[in-house]
Design a protein that fits this description.
With 380 residues, the chain is mainly beta. It contains one helix and 30 strands. A hairpin with a 5-residue loop joins strand 3 and strand 4. The radius of gyration is 47 Å and the shape is rod-shaped. Keywords: Signal.
Length: 380
C-alpha cells in the first residue's frame, strides 16, 4: 500500500497557513522558472500567486493540486477550501484504490456496492445471483445451525457410490437442495392463513420417517407418510378431525376439464366403521358399495388343485381333487366351485346345508363355500 509523505504534507499546510511568516522571493513569472530551491517560496509578480520550489527546480502553485507520493491533493488549506484528495475522475460513491499496473491510485466502485446487503438490495439485475461459482456448497444457517445447503449431491456428501445405490442417491452431479435441522430432524413448513390449526409441513422424526401433515377445509387435517420403528415400517394415510372426511380418488378429464370420482373411502361420522364406495359419488350405503360390474378370477382345473387367495371361481375339468385352505386362516373368504362333469371329485371337508361334513363334489352341481373361521360352510 502507498503511504502519504506526512513531512511534505505538513510543509504544504504550514506554508498555506503561515505564508507571510516565511521569507519569499519575488520573481517576474513562474512560467519557465527552472532554478527554484526545494521548499522555498516564490511570489510571481505577473499573477500574484505563491509558488513552492520543487526538487527538480520547477515551481508548484501553492493552493493548486499537489502531488505527494503519487497522491493528488487539492485545496488551499483554509476552512472553506481544505486540502483534500483531488477528484481524479471519480464518480459519486467511488473510492480510491491502488493499481499496481499503473503504480498509482485510481477511483473504483467499492466491493460493498455489489454485495448482498442485510437490509436488501435495490440495484440487482437479471444476471445477479446469490451463490458460489466454484464447486462448494452454499449454506444458510440460523442460531449457528445449518438449515439449508445447496450444491451437487456429491459436494453435499449425499452421494451413494455403492453398486446397489438407488436413484437419485447414485447421481453425484444432481443438483440438490438439502434441508438440515437440529438433532438430525428437519422440517419444511408453508404459510397457510386459512388453516386454523394444522399448518402444512413436511417433517422427519427420530426413526427416520418422512411425513406430510396439512390443513383441510380450514379446521380438518390430513397426514400421509412413513411410520414405525426398528425395521417395522408402514405407510399411513390419515384424514379427519370431527366428521366424515373421506378419501376421494378422482380422475381428471382433460377434454372437459372436469373430474370423475373413482372411489371413496369414508367413515360414517365419528364411528370406527369404514365404508368403501366405487362410483358412488357420496358416502357408501354399505361397507362396500360397487355401482358397477365386478370381476373375479376364474380357472378350469387340469389336475388336482390347492386353492389360495388367488382363486375365486373354479370349474372342474375332470376328476380332479380340490384342497381347501384351513378355514381358520381365511375367515370370510368365499369360493365358487362348478362341477359340470359326471365325476364326483374329492374335496376337503366342508359343512353341507344340513350341517354335516361332506368330502365330495356332486356331479353337475355348483357349490358356494365360505369360511366361518372354523369350518367351510356351504351357503347356496
Amino acid at each position: 500500500m502507498k503511504t502519504l509523505n506526512l513531512g511534505k504534507i505538513f510543509l504544504v499546510i504550514l506554508s498555506l497557513t503561515a505564508v507571510n511568516s516565511f521569507a519569499q522571493e519575488t520573481i517576474p513569472t513562474a512560467t519557465g522558472f527552472a532554478t527554484a530551491a526545494e521548499g522555498n517560496l516564490y511570489r510571481a509578480t505577473d499573477d500574484g500567486q505563491i509558488y513552492i520550489g520543487l526538487r527538480n527546480g520547477t515551481l508548484k502553485l501553492v493552493g493548486g493540486n499537489i502531488v505527494v507520493d503519487n497522491v493528488t491533493l487539492s485545496g488551499t488549506g483554509t476552512a472553506a477550501n481544505p486540502i483534500k484528495l483531488a477528484q481524479n475522475g471519480a464518480a459519486n460513491q467511488q473510492v480510491m484504490t491502488w493499481d499496481s499496473a499503473i503504480n498509482n491510485w485510481k477511483p473504483a466502485t467499492p466491493a460493498a456496492a455489489s454485495n448482498w446487503l442485510i437490509t436488501g438490495n435495490a440495484n440487482t439485475t437479471a444476471s445477479n445471483f446469490l451463490g458460489t461459482t466454484n464447486d462448494v456448497k452454499l449454506q444458510l444457517a440460523s442460531n449457528n445451525t445449518p438449515m439449508l445447503e445447496v450444491g451437487r449431491r456429491q459436494t453435499l456428501g449425499l452421494y451413494d457410490s455403492s453398486s446397489t445405490g438407488l436413484y437419485p442417491y447414485n447421481q453425484p452431479d444432481a443438483s440438490v437442495m438439502y434441508v438440515r435441522g437440529t438433532g438430525g430432524n428437519s422440517a419444511l413448513q408453508f404459510e397457510a392463513g386459512g388453516a386454523s390449526f394444522y399448518k402444512p409441513v413436511f417433517y422427519t422424526d427420530s426413526n427416520g420417517n418422512f411425513r406430510l401433515r396439512g390443513s383441510s377445509a380450514g379446521t380438518d387435517f390430513f397426514e400421509m407418510g412413513s411410520s414405525g420403528a426398528s425395521n417395522a415400517g408402514r405407510f399411513d394415510f390419515i384424514i379427519g378431525d370431527d366428521g366424515d372426511e373421506p378419501f376421494v380418488f378422482n380422475k381428471y378429464n382433460g377434454t372437459t376439464a372436469t373430474t370423475v370420482e373413482l372411489m371413496r373411502l369414508s367413515g360414517n361420522g365419528l364411528n370406527t366403521n369404514v365404508r368403501v364406495g366405487i362410483n358412488t359419488g357420496a358416502l357408501a350405503n354399505s361397507t362396500l358399495q360397487n355401482n358397477g360390474s365386478l370381476s373375479t378370477p376364474t380357472i378350469t382345473t387340469t389336475g388336482a388343485l390347492t386353492l389360495t387367495e388367488s382363486h375365486f371361481t373354479i370349474i372342474i375339468g375332470g376328476n380332479h381333487a380340490i384342497t381347501l385352505p384351513a378355514a381358520n386362516t381365511c375367515t370370510g373368504r368365499m369360493y365358487v366351485i362348478k362341477n359340470p362333469t359326471t365325476n364326483t371329485p374329492a374335496i376337503s371337508s366342508y359343512r353341507n346345508l344340513s350341517g354335516t361334513a361332506a368330502t365330495a363334489l356332486t356331479a353337475n352341481s355348483i357349490l358356494w363355500l365360505q369360511s366361518d373361521g372354523t369350518n367351510w360352510q356351504r351357503i347356496n
